[in-house]
Amino acid sequence: MTDLGLFGPDSVTWRVHSEPILFLAGLRSLYLQALHPRAVAAVVQNSDYKTDPWGRLVRTSTYVATTIFGSTEQAEAAGRRVRAIHARLRGTDPRTGAEFRVDDPDLLRWVHVAEVESFVTTARRAGVRLSAGDVDRYYDEQRRVAALVGLDPSSVPGSAAEVEEYYRQIQPDLRMTKEAAETFFFLSAPPLPWRLGLTPVRLVYLGVAATAFALLPAWARRKYGAFGLRTADLPADLSTRGIRLVLNALPRKYFYSPVHQEALKRAAQTVS
């Protein structure tokens, strides 16, 4: 029997993650995650994101692709590697000086929710047709990914209403910190590879980063000190839809990772 992994072609997860526009969602999620003081401290204190940002991006993208499109064995192996890394890492709370574990369930849950909410919200605002039921199903499916990093799936929001309630409860814990500000500026203007920083690519990236930031919830933009007006949502939506149109005009094969392409081959074998 062909192993289609944790999800398969009939899942909402495959439909959402087949969209090239999700690179924008990844950037949005990083802006959002940085508002959690301990989460951003854990990254700053344990990561090489400033010295090797593109390498870290590739590793993260590979992990996400493996959990979404890889075989069950590949996804579980990726989860074990991440759990092993997290288990030995510690961080220091920037306010209290107290040490904390990077694999603290509260931190893992925040990163998970910020990521999956960014994926499905960006897809919808880009024009991907997803019903309210599809969104709820996506969140429920993503509990399987949460389990890979060691979370109890029942402790993870599994619907849009539960995500909204989770955000409502955690907002008092989120704020702009020195680390969040540094992350914001780094994400907005990172060093570009291959001397691209001196080309128009820099301007293109600035526009992409501005769009990703504008896609944040109004309350998150306000925590960064920016305007959180609803009137900013329409330009962000239009920009996101425009980027998706450009990307969708190109062959999908340019955006599909090797693990994604292999998944499509396995899925084709089940119907042939």
From TrEMBL:
Keywords: Membrane, Transmembrane, Transmembrane helix. The keyword Membrane applies. Residues 14-226 form the ER-bound oxygenase mpaB/mpaB'/Rubber oxygenase catalytic domain. It holds the Pfam family MPAB_Lcp_cat. It comes from the Bacteria. The chain crosses the membrane at residues 203-220. PANTHER family: BLR2777 PROTEIN, ER-BOUND OXYGENASE MPAB_MPAB'_RUBBER OXYGENASE CATALYTIC DOMAIN-CONTAINING PROTEIN. This is ER-bound oxygenase mpaB/mpaB'/Rubber oxygenase catalytic domain-containing protein. The lineage of its organism: Bacteria, Bacillati, Actinomycetota, Actinomycetes, Micromonosporales.
